[in-house]
Amino acid sequence: MTLRISRPATLTSLAFAMAACYAHAEPVTATDAVVVTATRTPQPLANVISDTITIGPEQIAAAGAGSIIDLLQRQRGIEIARNGGAGTASSVYIRGANSNQNIVLVDGVRIGSSTTGAANWSAIPLTAIDHIEIVYGPLSSLYGADAIGGVIQIFTKKGKGAPALTAFAGYGSDKTREADATLSGATGGEHSFNYAISAGKEKSDGFSATRPGSTSYNADRDGYDKENVSGQFGVQIAPGYEAGALFLHSKLESQYDSGASAYDVRSKAELETAAVYAKAKFLPNVDTLLQYAESQDKGQNWSSAAAAGYSRIDTKQTDITLQNDVRIGADVLQLLYDHRKEEVSTNGDTALNRDRTTNAWAASYNARRGANLLNASIRRDNSVYGAKNTGSIGYGYDITSQLRATASYGTSFRAPTYNELYYSGYGNPANKPEQGKNAELGLRWDDGVNALSASYFHNRLTDLLVSTTPCPYAGYKSSCVYNVNEALLEGVTIAGATRVAGVNLAANLDLQDPKDETSGKRLARRAKKHGNVTADYSIGALKTGVELEFSGDRYDDAANKNRLGGYGLVNLYATYSFTRDWSALVRWNNIGDKQYDLARFYATPGSKVFAGLRYGYK
């Protein structure tokens, strides 16, 4: 199928505009950045074939209060949907893939609900995050089930250098209050020790989650209260031998609407991750990692005063990972074993109270020969839904020291969720995994002064699990879910960055056609075009910035009957450093007070202001 773009001149114009700016630019890029997610081992970003971006500490600090969702919305290739304010249910779409077709990791620990298949984004604390890596495209051959659209890995703060304290406090619209602090550092010597402990709290009165027209509409404010604590500890036992532990605990209590009742309709979510690990260099060219990790996604809901209005669903995931990185000259052979156990406990449908285990073996090879880069990986996952084999191959060629062309092909799959397999009267234990086949071409220019990239992807999905009413199978009273549909996620992404006359400029544009090929309709809540433009300028201790977010129209339903209009938002922010240790932040989001929709009949933030004071030098 051919991608149809109504205004092809848009792509060309953006490229020429950026190229014209680059003629008089100054250095802005960081080609020496090291990333982990794309290959499961540290690699310079310049040596990574997969389309990868990082969101650094400075960007996160400038984001102010709010959800990680707001930060991700400003990145290329990503769209979001949310049922109200920062504390409500949210979805993240990577390159048009569903929220449950992407993997989310926190410090290498996989998180998410086994009943829905997606991470609870609203429960992830922005204040605990140091940086984020986003890898676009299928990574099932490295990470297993669900890595169809991509992988997002969140890294919490880690200790280094002399002991340091950082702290932040802020206040803004809707009586939004935020405070966080981190104590971190590291000792030197043969038996070095690093540590970081962070804690934070955020609370807001919020705004009504729904709009008039919704059957759940209630004009009251729907606020949230979120608190978190996290830590990382590592010790070098001897040269080449290291052990450590890490944890994250976040609790979110939020309100939502369920009609005009005076009852306080609300939910409570808890996200917990913990891991212990050991690293060893048994041979000079072999690095071994053994890790035991747990994550829990706990949810409680109070929809009415009646006993039937209370529900609880808890997911626990346990992972044991053994990874060996064998260095063969400049090449790396990676051998991996992964054991994953999922457990669900609920007070409702007892058919969901069960566990399942997945055992996986994988191998990958990363090589460089002069101007040629190559990676290849294979994996086999065995679980209750059967055995799945996935693989990928990628090639990169340095046309010049500044220009690289890449091509890749990979297969992926999404495992059926507990709801799709076991939910009484709806799920079917015979449901199979969804499958994806992705081909991709890329071109990247980076001269240390300017950066420009373009990627084309063609991701065909089969055996999509679709909920249908009425159910065509006997024994089901109403709706059910089964493998029936096919979809095509196809698109082009362009991104660039430069500096002109002291102004840092960056822009990205996604032109895509995420389509359900069985029905011929566009996938719900996904636009054909969306993007971002940012600019910042520093004058001494003052830094100012402007952000433009824009999206075309979307449909709220699979039948494409309920249209959500396109929108454009403008945000402003400024930071000022009083001294080496003290700085202030002011952010004004949606300065035009634009009313827009991310989900039908659900409210979105209007014009909001937030200001804060930060202590600590980074």
UniProtKB/TrEMBL annotation:
Signal sequence segment: 1-25
Chief subcellular location: membrane
Positions of the TonB-dependent receptor plug domain: 50-151
InterPro entries documented for this protein: Beta-barrel_TonB, Beta-barrel_TonB_sf, Plug_dom, Plug_dom_sf, TonB-dep_rcpt-like
Keywords for the protein's UniProt record, in alphabetical order: Cell outer membrane, Ion transport, Membrane, Receptor, Signal, TonB box, Transmembrane, Transmembrane beta strand, Transport
Domain TonB-dependent receptor-like beta-barrel: 192-591
Annotated region described as Disordered, given as residue ranges: 203-223
Superkingdom as given in the UniProt entry: Bacteria
Membrane topology listed for this record: Multi-pass membrane protein
Keyword Signal annotated: yes
Localization terms from the record: Cell outer membrane
Pfam families linked: Plug (PF07715), TonB_dep_Rec_b-barrel (PF00593)
Keyword Transmembrane: yes
Family: Belongs to the TonB-dependent receptor family.
UniProt-recorded name of the protein: TonB-dependent receptor
Species the sequence originates in: Duganella levis
